[in-house]
Amino acid sequence: MRTPKIFSLSELTMKRPLYLFLYSFILLFFTGCHSKPTDATQKDGLPDIYPDYVGVTIPVGIAPLNFSMADDEVETIDVEVKGSKGGTIHANGDYADFDIDEWHQLVEQNKGGTLTLTVCAEKEGQWTRYRDFQIMVSDEALDAWGITYRCIPPSYEIYSKMGLYQRDLSNFDESALLENTQTPDQCINCHTANRTNPDQYVFHVRGSHGATFVHRNGEDELLKAVNDSLGGSMVYPYWHPGGRYYAFSTNKTSQMFHTASNKRIEVYDNESDVFVYDTQTHAILKDTLTMKLLWAENTPAFSPDGQWLYFTTALRQFYPRDYDKERYSLCRVSFDEKTGSLGTQVDTLINTAITGKSVTWPRPSYDGRYLMYTQTDYGYFSIWHPEADLWLLDLQTGETRPLDEVNSDGAESLHNWSNDSRWFLFTSRRDDGLYSRIYFSMMDKDGRATKPFMLPQRNPKQFYRRLLYSYNTPDFTSRPVKNDARLMGRDIESDQRTPTTLRSK
């Protein structure tokens, strides 16, 4: 059989005019379909773009902030980006699709400066030029390779497809850590790393082969999911910075649906307690300070120095009748890493008897300065509460305030800090009121947050309109998580489990 002739580009362009014509035609077809701004009408207002990146602050290394015009009838968008310290890039097409390498070069060149964007849009053959806007480039680097998160559809009683994923923040690459197609009939919960460390993480699996999956020191371990003495499984984990211990809550969770409300579903706990688990002895520390009979303790978190355990607590109500009367206070108790035991006194930092509100998801910054939490009217499952907002507690002064810089009319929740405590991410339903999306913001040295920006996507309008999943429990990761999903699924489907023991104070 004859070997087919392979022509080089030089042969095509120098010796074969027909191929040159075809090559030019194809190149023109794919790169020259969109018109350029001509006779543009100047408009005083800012462009209405999706996502809203007007006036945001970004770190060096973030993926291109591609965007579309919010108006679907716009045919072509033309964007020029100029750096205050030099450099220019350009995009023209259905949406602003910036070259990744050019974008990174421009952002790096303008670290600590600004990017000025000039936007022109074509609609019905007429071009409009809008007032320029700026994007600030922070001189504070983002101390993270990427993020991890769970993607979950709006299912309630039946486990649909869900999974744990990771995303490179410098581009648009996403990869699955584990999907429940590899663990049939299982619900995968809350991938939680130790201070963005991909070498230490834990997540819980519910279902017929439920387990608490722990990855530590290069080894995987599956703990028995339910302990009868605890009354439930091990959920809402938070690592002690030393890596030996982590705190859990154990919850008997129920849900109900609203029939006449702007809320769709209500999640509450018939019972919940907080405890500490020792990875070396496989012992669960039961302490009456965090396991009171008539109180519901929840959502634990260790301080960055490991000396305090934060948690929320509420007087139990009659469920489901009085679900909207349950309000959580923020408390803390000391922790001794040498003995693996709690102190003898609980301090109340935010008292619901004073605020009349409920605290959930406490997350201290890793530099020890702040504690960010979500405040709701009642309860703790904030993703279903449109009134849920982020609040910031100054651990040095004791002052607390709403983060008005980032809050919206949608539910804000499920937040985490970067390792250097300068950036944070959170989920919000401000986009459409239905699905949770991920947003980023920077905390400046005065404790003020910058305008948040949505997780960049290649074609964001198309991507988010087609995405029928919510982002859940996002966190930063300093490096990619390395795992074998096939082996993880096999181990979860097995009957091999590590038993735990109880140690009462």
Distance between the termini: 82 Å
Overall geometry comes to globular
Fraction of residues in helices? 10-25%
Oligomer: single chain
Write down how many β-strands occur, each being a DSSP E stretch of 2 or more residues.
36
Rg, nearest Å: 26 Å
- What characterizes the major β-sheet? 7 strands, mixed
Number of H/I helices: 6
Unreliable residue stretches: 1-32
Structural class: mainly beta
Mean pLDDT: 89
Strand content: 35-45%
Topology record:
Blueprint: H1 9-14, H2 17-31, E1 41-42, E2 49-50, E3 57-58, E4 68-69, E5 76-83, E6 88-93, H3 100-109, E7 114-123, E8 126-129, E9 133-137, E10 146-152, E11 163-168, E12 174-179, E13 186-194, E14 197-207, E15 211-216, E16 219-224, E17 226-227, E18 232-233, E19 235-239, E20 245-257, E21 265-278, E22 283-286, E23 295-302, E24 308-315, E25 329-336, E26 341-350, H4 352-355, E27 358-364, E28 370-376, E29 389-394, E30 400-402, E31 412-417, E32 423-428, E33 437-442, E34 453-454, H5 460-466, E35 470-477, H6 485-493, E36 501-504
Parallel strand pairs: 1-8, 3-9, 22-36
Antiparallel strand pairs: 2-4, 5-6, 5-7, 7-8, 7-9, 10-11, 10-35, 11-12, 13-14, 14-15, 15-16, 17-18, 19-20, 20-21, 21-22, 23-24, 24-25, 25-26, 27-28, 28-29, 29-30, 31-32, 32-33, 33-34
